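Tokens as discussed.
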């Protein structure tokens, strides 16, 4: 579970970075919304981390709390990036990341 959450976190960071760069077809409004959601997710992760350190929740519970939000953000960001004019190598990396995310969620 923690490894899956780490994968999602890395994917979110990468995909939000792509969105922030404007990718060619992502509107500024859409990029801003994705960035705002990314910031909110980081804040939620920080709060959950504090709760885990204080013993309020277990690491497993914390990962479960973050997983759905992180997966949704990653999916939305990938969808937005897929509609843009990305270089082929970036598109392949995005497609590979999406496959990894789907495979991790299938084991859920």
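Sequence:
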């Amino acid at each position: 579970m923690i490894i899956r959450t780490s994968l999602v976190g890395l994917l979110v960071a990468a995909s939000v970075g792509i969105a922030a760069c404007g990718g060619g077809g992502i509107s500024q409004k859409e990029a801003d919304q994705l960035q705002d959601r990314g910031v909110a997710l980081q804040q939620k992760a920080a709060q959950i981390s504090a709760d885990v350190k204080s013993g309020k929740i277990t690491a497993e519970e914390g990962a479960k709390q973050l997983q759905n939000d992180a997966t949704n953000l990653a999916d939305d960001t990938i969808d937005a990036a897929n509609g843009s004019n990305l270089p082929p190598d970036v598109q392949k990396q995005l497609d590979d990341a999406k496959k990894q995310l789907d495979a991790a969620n299938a084991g859920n």
